[in-house]
Amino acid sequence: MTIELKAIEFDNAHEAIQWTDASGRGQAITVGGRHLVVEPSEADRLARAGVEFAYLHDHELPDGSHRIVTVPVNG
Prior knowledge:
alpha+beta
């Protein structure tokens, strides 16, 4: 199945998350090994279509360090 989507592609997860933080828009996701930023409605559409992807989040640990975590959808 091929699904077209409107997205901005980044070289890595950190850059995608950083872009959403700086712009205040979009959701950072990973799909098919690609790091993308999509509008929330586009992420909802992917989820409804059964596409496997994951939301990307920057999680601050108690010691102040950061880790990128994923939240799988349809996986």
